[in-house]
Amino acid sequence: MESIEKANIFENFLFSISGLQVEQINISSQFFETVYLKKGDFFIRDNEACRYIGFIGQGAVKAYNTNKDNKENITCFKFENEFVSSFSEFVSQENSIKNIRAIEDCVIYRINHSNYLYLLDKVTVWNEIIKSVLEQEYNQKERYLLNYNNKSVLDKYNYMLINEPMLIKRVTTQDLASYLGITQRSLTRAKGEIHKNTL
User: Fold this and answer.
1) CB burial class (10 A; 0-12, 13-18, 19+) of residue 111?
2) What is the DSSP letter of 9?
3) Per the count of CB atoms within 10 A, which of 8, 68, 94, 177 is most buried?
4) Residue 21 and residue 23: Cα distance in Å, rounded?
5) 49 DSSP β-pair partners
6) Closest by alpha carbon to 101, among 84, 124, 118?
7) DSSP structure string for 97-135
8) What is the pTM of this model?
9) Neighbours of 14 (CB within 10 A)
10) Which stretch of DSSP H or E encloses residue 84?
């Protein structure tokens, strides 16, 4: 089953990358192991060594840190065909500054740091892949600041409705409210207001 999943999900992703030859894809896939996370399981914990980068084949995760009252501050969500890690801490091999936790049952293909370094050396196209992943991370943060920071609750929810509908379909109200930096009550009110205006 594992090899079928890899062929269907992870290798399909690798085949979609221009510049990777079949032999390089075969080499690359050998260094990724499949892990299965149940909803609520951790992929990475804060204050622990950040040992892996993962590729989500199925499911979704949230990244967050907690304040002194143990309240979650969610910074992003990742879904299928996205890489996930605490990237700067992975590269520097320091403790993660955030938790990454499954919000759905997940299949993740992960690579450890020593294999990652070996892969960058042997299959140099991976340097470009990782560069692209880090650019996407940066762009995601920029989009968040641009579209969610210092905006009204209605504006935030409207933007999400139009541009990130997957979040509304697959993320709980509690997690969405944390991500938007608002209360659940405010989010529920905004949903009701927009729904009323579209009737």
Assistant:
1) buried
2) I
3) 177
4) 5
5) 95
6) 84
7) SSEEEESS-EEEEEEEHHHHHHHHHHSTHHHHHHHHHHH
8) 0.90
9) 20
10) strand 83-84
Q: What is the tens place of the pLDDT at every residue in 154-172?
A: 999 999 999 999 999 999 9
The tokens for 8 are 């269907």
- Is residue 181 within 8 Å of 170, Cβ to Cβ? no
pLDDT given for residue 198 in this prediction? 60
Q: What's the CA gap between 77 and 43, in Å, rounded? A: 13
Helices then strands (H, E): number in the chain?
A: 10, 8
> Is 109 in contact with 6 (CB distance < 8 Å)?
yes
Closest listed residue to residue 91, CA positions, set 111, 73, 63, 64: 111
pLDDT at 6: 47
Measured between alpha carbons, how far apart are the two ends of the chain, in Å? 47
For the chain, which ranges sit under pLDDT 70? 1-8, 197-199
Alpha carbons 176 and 183: distance in angstroms, whole number:
9
Put residue 47 in one of left, alpha, beta given phi > 0 → left and psi -120 to 50 → alpha: left
Q: Which H or E run contains 183?
A: none
- Residue 97 — φ and ψ, nearest 5°? -100, 5
Return the axis-axis angle of helices 22-30 and 113-122, rounded to nearest 10°.
170
CA 186 from centroid of its chain's CA atoms: 25
Distance, in Å, from the CA atom of 107 to the CA atom of 184, rounded to the nearest integer, reads 29
